[in-house]
Design a protein that fits this description.
Largest sheet of chain B: 6 strands, mixed
Number of helices of chain B: 7
Structural class of chain A: alpha+beta
CATH class of chain B: Alpha Beta
CATH architecture of chain B: 3-Layer(aba) Sandwich
CATH topology of chain B: Rossmann fold
Distance between the termini of chain A: 37 Å
Distance between the termini of chain B: 20 Å
Strand order of the largest sheet of chain A: 5-6-10-7-9-8
Order of helices and strands of chain A: HHEEEHEEEEHEEHEHEEHEHHHHHH
Largest sheet of chain A: 6 strands, mixed
Helix content of chain A: 55-70%
Radius of gyration of chain A: 30 Å
Number of strands of chain A: 13
Order of helices and strands of chain B: EEEHEEHEHHHEHEHEE
Number of strands of chain B: 10
Number of domains of chain B: 1
Shape of chain A: elongated
Shape of chain B: globular
Largest interface: A-B, 32 and 30 residues
Oligomer: heterodimer
Number of helices of chain A: 13
Helix content of chain B: 25-40%
Chain lengths: ~375, ~220
């Protein structure tokens, strides 16, 4: 009971102390929250994006087989499907047709893809929402492409791709096989690549090895590798942003250090008074520790909350150009809110802990000296 | 409780080129339930001596006894405990914490003892009432006049009901009328059975009939009383 009352008295004094220096503490809280907000935004956004990518890629084929010519990806002959032969564990195989198209009107690259399951007429396309937004078109409108031979082909937009897949389908144009071959100059009997479905992930490595042996001019790409690549890309982008934010973080560290290490004469005097009237060194330290902890905890919670709202309710509008990476066609999509405990703990450790330590050390130095010396 | 000092020395910045011996072998005995004044010019060492008696600092050499206890060898925690329970301090600059209210300032020394909040507020209010400051309880201390600030400082010194009251140059920032008022308050405290120790070079204090003993210091040594 006595201990609880003691803590209550300390807390009363701490709150009164914080309110006494309203301007200074409010300023500190704002700067501190801003730093946490920026760091947490990048972390939350990257993490959610990686997760989203991972989930979307789960539906993609396990192995993509590409033919390599002079070290570069080249078209693959259709008879490679036959040459692959019987491979234990492969449940399906098919050739894919896809490519890129640069649209000078909006200075953006589209991804063209053949989707036989959509049963598109040769004059029809299905487009991603970002293309529709950028070109200002919708179902029923026409989209004109300049083909490989300079001819112009017009396609009627049959529908737009569902917005829940926009992360991947923002720049996608689906068309019929014939339309693709004619407009892009890909002759019959050739595909862009071949995809294989494998039901047992443990067999993937062995199948990839067999493919390399049977078709030496090809390279198999496993889904796990794509996932890893995306992961590194987003980690790299996150790193770039962190480097950009480093200046702001450093400025804050200097600010906090200055605030923490340079105890003002007024603060030194107050510590002396408290000790003179009977406060123990431990009381003074606890009081100052809680003062710093309350401030940094509030900043952490405020910054994190704002970052959460920014990322999951405002589509991370401040950082999306860097983190999403598309140049012109930005997908508009809502990320699924996801919070990683380890990430929160890391951010907490690197923001709250150093501040509290930086605050407590100079106070400890003052509070262990005789109150008489502090007051002189 | 009798306070006894035996050959007490205090050296500041010991071992450094700017070392300064503020107290040089002081031995004296201070009787309980009396008003004693340490008199001397500025720099004579009276405040230093008072701070050692009040456990605010330690002597470099020598012994200080409080009743049966030897203070000079006690670790910090015990000194704080004695300071908290035995001494009440009135400082020259009053040393109130600005931004806090009069009532909060008075209650500060009691926080580490964690008494019942209602009881503490009642004690603080009763003290304010006794010193004619009840109407100022919620005011921030920086709004107070010099005389009021000093009375708040006295209330704060009394909140833990100490047996010994220590006042360092209490009239240095007061005019003659307020200084006399202060001595009148000291008289009342003396009547309530407290030991009062004052340092001063103000004649209003050391010539006051309230003061029962004057100890004169010069260059860190007792030269009279």
């Amino acid at each position: 009971m006595g201990w609880l009352r003691h803590q209550r008295y300390l807390l009363d004094f701490i709150i009164a102390s914080l309110l006494r220096r309203k301007g200074k503490n409010l300023g500190l809280l704002l700067v501190y929250s801003l730093i946490v907000f920026m760091l947490a935004s990048v972390m939350l956004f990257t993490h959610a994006l990686k997760r989203e990518m991972g989930q979307v890629l789960q539906a993609s084929p396990e192995i993509i087989l590409q033919r390599i010519e002079a070290g570069r990806h080249a078209l693959i002959p259709a008879d490679y499907l036959r040459k692959i032969g019987r491979l234990r564990g492969v449940t399906a195989r098919k050739g894919r047709l896809w490519g890129y198209f640069y649209d000078p009107a909006v200075r953006a690259n589209y991804t063209l893809m053949v989707a036989p399951e959509r049963r598109l007429a040769d004059s029809e396309v299905i487009i991603g929402s970002a293309i529709a937004r950028t070109r200002g078109i919708g179902p029923g409108d026409y989209l004109t492409f300049r083909a490989h031979d300079g001819e112009a082909y017009s396609f009627r937009v049959r529908e737009l791709l569902a917005s829940d897949t926009e992360l991947f389908s923002a720049d996608l144009v689906l068309m019929s096989e014939r339309a693709f071959r004619v407009s892009q100059g890909v002759a019959e009997g050739w595909y862009t690549d071949i995809v294989l479905s494998v039901s047992n992930p443990l067999e993937l490595a062995k199948i990839a090895e067999k493919l390399t042996l049977r078709l030496p001019d090809t390279r198999p790409i496993l889904r796990e590798e794509i996932l890893r690549t995306y992961d590194s890309i987003f980690s790299w982008r996150q790193g770039i942003l962190f480097v950009l934010l480093l200046g702001a973080i450093l400025a804050f560290v200097i600010f906090a250090w200055d605030k923490a290490s340079g105890l003002s004469a007024e603060e030194r005097r107050e510590i002396g008074i408290l000790k003179a009237v009977g406060w123990e060194t431990g009381d003074v330290l606890r009081m100052k520790f809680w003062e710093g902890a309350i401030l940094s905890l509030m900043a952490f919670l405020l910054g994190y909350l704002l970052a959460y709202l920014h990322v999951f309710h405002a589509s991370a509008s401040l950082f999306e150009p860097v983190l999403k990476g598309w140049a012109v066609l930005y997908p508009a999509f809502r990320l699924t809110p996801v919070i990683d405990g380890l990430q929160v703990a890391t951010l907490f450790f690197f923001s709250v802990f150093p501040y509290v330590v930086a605050t407590i050390i100079p106070i400890w130095q003052v509070s262990v000296t005789d109150p008489d010396a502090v007051m002189r | 409780m009798r306070i006894v000092l035996e050959n007490v020395h205090k050296v500041f910045n010991q071992g450094r080129p700017n070392a300064h011996e503020a107290i040089r072998g002081v031995s004296l005995s201070i009787e309980p339930n009396r008003v004693t004044c340490l008199k001397g010019a500025s720099g004579s060492g009276k405040s230093t001596l008072l701070s050692m008696i009040g456990c605010l600092s330690r002597p470099t050499a020598g012994r200080i006894h409080l009743g049966e206890r030897l203070l000079s060898g006690l670790p910090e925690r015990f000194l704080t405990d004695i300071r908290r329970h035995t001494f009440g301090f009135i400082f020259q600059q009053f040393n109130l914490i600005s931004g806090l209210s009069v009532l909060e300032n008075i209650m500060l020394p009691a926080y580490p003892l964690a008494p019942d909040h209602r009881q503490l507020t009642a004690t603080a209010s009763a003290l304010l009432d006794r010193f004619g400051l009840a109407h100022k309880a919620r005011n921030p201390v920086q709004w107070l006049s010099g005389g009021e600030a000093q009375r708040v400082a006295i209330c704060r010194a009394l909140i833990n009901d100490p047996r010994i009251l220590i006042a360092d140059e209490p009239t240095a920032n007061l005019d003659t009328r307020l200084s006399r008022d202060f001595m009148e308050q000291i008289r009342r405290l003396r009547e309530s059975g407290r030991t009062v120790l004052i340092t001063s070079h103000d004649p209003v204090v050391f010539d006051s009939p309230v003061v029962e003993r004057v100890i004169e210091l010069c260059d860190g040594q007792v030269v009279g009383g």
